[in-house]
Amino acid sequence: MVPIVAFTALILESEKQKMFSCGINAFLAKPLNVGKLYRAMMMFISEKAIETAKAEEKRERESLFDGLEIEKGIAHTNNNEALYIELLKEFLEAYGESDRTFGKLIDEKRHEQIKMLFVDMRGLSGTIGASALHDLVNEIYNYLLLKKYDYLPTYVKKYSRELSKVKKAIEAYRFSKDMME
Fold this sequence. Notes:
The chain is mainly alpha-helical.
């Protein structure tokens, strides 16, 4: 049930009774008193409703930025969001096409260069809050350390998919920040 709060200059008792008989839950008399408005709203908004709304907002935000844990990344920059945004920009510029590089290096059997790429990606993916990408990079890096190069081709598509998710999340986050300015 959606509560209805009337805002009216009609404050005679007979007028109030008519409003309540029509289904209102409360009324506020003009002129507006913001404190009374908030009290009326709080009467009808339970703590559970507030928690549910916050949880829904968090789920929407997480799905929008799927692949990137924004709060975690910002925490790595000492809560400096401007620095975090700069890191994301640098990530895209330096590693946005690293999936193609990875595939090419595998084809050319340049395993030391792959290792160098993934050393960089291990640190940066963790720093920006790209946890799933970070886990995948660690998995690939472990195969490189063990010299199990035959497993690498099976990771090209996985790496490309995860990197794509992170890139989309970064673009969505940067777009949301641009819209706020």
